[in-house]
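> @MW can you paste both from yesterday?
MW: sure, first one:
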Amino acid sequence: MPERATVRWLRHDADLRLRLRAPDPESLFLAAARAVVAASVEGTLSGTDRRRVALSEPDRESLLVAWLNEILYLVSSGGFLPAGVEGLRLGGGDLSAELIGGPPDPSRHRFLREIKAATFHDLSVVKTGSVWSATVLFDV
């Protein structure tokens, strides 16, 4: 059974810093998506609506920022809360996935904070041995 991803939020003066570890890049990107949604909204997420995401960037770091910012856009626009990810594929500088979720429901969801964007400040995505790790700073 593959090793599970770990997620740790770190203190930072005016922003949020996320540190992730996972056995492969796909698990890293999935854990990052779950973490940013969980930091934004509280409540049971569900739904059957689907949003296709296709991104292309020059490197993994830029791809991770674009992925997280796409998710943040969907959450902040108020129309879609991702509850899950299906078919995540990474190849070179490309990412494709389908987000499953639905609209926010005020009786079930409480917004915790507005996360404006994932940034490139102190950004890293590295493989050390068999472990992939990433650090992302978010503007709040």
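MW: second:
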Amino acid sequence: MDLVETVYRTTSSFPKEEVFGLTAQLRRAATSIPSNIAEGQCRESTPDFRRFLSIARGSLGEAETQVLIAERLRYINAVKREEALVSLHETARLLNGLLRSLTHDR
């Protein structure tokens, strides 16, 4: 959820012409991460949970790529990029740990 807040704050300064482009795409990818974690946790099986966590991990990769694109297009500076990447990497670390713990519980 912290990541989603970071992304929304960061994308609020994107150009208005990006509202249906990169802004929306990055926000969707970020929002998809906790949404998939929550949906997977509500499923009735560990394999289903792992599958939704894997989808969340894919959204992390998508969001990271979009942050780098935003920097290349000069929508954000290096400081904002780093803030977003730190949040993405921390989320990835936690998500990977959760996935590992579920793999060991088989």
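> thanks! The mean pLDDT is 94.
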